[in-house]
Here is the input.
Amino acid sequence: MVTESPRTTPRAAELLDRAAGLRADAELMDGYARRLVATAQALSACSAAPAHTRPALTRQAAACRRAAGQLRAAAAVLLTAHLRTDAVPSGRTGRSSGRAGRSSGLAGRPPAAGPRSYDGIA
Here is the structure.
């Protein structure tokens, strides 16, 4: 026998807390990227460092920046979900009427974070 649990929606405070946590994690990842780039630059001046070290650190920094961007995007999705739950009047589903050209009603939606560049690394 299969029973179905009622679907629960996260509370607004939970969504905001998770979004804040994701943004904090994104900042950490940006910090790691900066440290990796600084280390790569320091090692480039060191003749004893293996040749593959700088490219490897550069790739790791790029991965950290990508992860930071993904964390920010996830936070933006949570904030959008929060705004949608706040914007839907009681008794309405929040679904689109299907008419083209209408705005989503998310005037307070935060803009997407653009890519960052550290020390000329794209």
